[in-house]
Amino acid sequence: MRVVKVLSVIFGLVALLLVGAWISGVRVVVIQPIGAIPDGITMLVTGLPGINLIDSPDAICQRQQGGVSLLCRGVTAVALG
Q1: How far apart are CA 61 and CA 11, in angstroms?
Q2: What is the pLDDT of residue 10?
Q3: Tell me, what DSSP letter sits at residue 42?
Q4: For residue 43, what is the DSSP state?
Q5: What pLDDT, on the 0 to 100 scale, is given for residue 18?
Q6: Distance CA 48, CA 14 (A)
Q7: What's the confidence (pLDDT) of residue 76?
Q8: Residue-level pLDDT at 56
Q9: pLDDT tens, position by position, for the chain (81 residues)?
Q10: Which of 39, 57, 62, 67 sits CB 3.0–4.6 Å from 76 for a disulfide?
Q11: Best CA proximity match to 41, nearest among 50, 28, 53, 52
């Protein structure tokens, strides 16, 4: 029973953090490894309209252009950075 209480508290805190991040405008941007960024990167950003709570240049290209190209991925990654 104690494990259930601990897990429910952890779940509640994570949910609270996600709701707080959504309200405050903090977003997580994940950039996959490409030639210019061989290890990839994860960024916390604020003030960028039109991106999801967790997003990536590939997902943004897919939504805006209906597909992913190397050019779109690079331009979007630079714009987010």
Answers
A1: 32
A2: 92
A3: E
A4: E
A5: 79
A6: 23
A7: 87
A8: 92
A9: 788 888 899 999 988 887 877 777 888 899 888 777 788 889 888 888 888 888 999 999 999 999 998 888 888 888 887
A10: 57
A11: 28
pTM over 0.70: no
Is residue 44 helix, strand or coil?
Answer: strand
> Please, is 31 exposed, middle or buried when counting C-beta atoms within 10 Å of its C-beta (0-12, 13-18, 19+)?
buried
Phi, psi of 40 (to 5 degrees): 75, 175
Rounded Cα–Cα distance for residues 11 and 69 (Å)? 37
Question: How far is it, in rounded angstroms, from Cα 34 to Cα 15?
Answer: 32
DSSP codes, 6-39: HHHHHHHHHHHHHHHHHHHT-EEEEE---SSSTT
Share in percent of the chain as helix, strand, coil (round to 5): 55, 15, 30
How far apart, in Å, are the Cα atoms of 75 and each of 22, 30, 37? 25, 15, 13
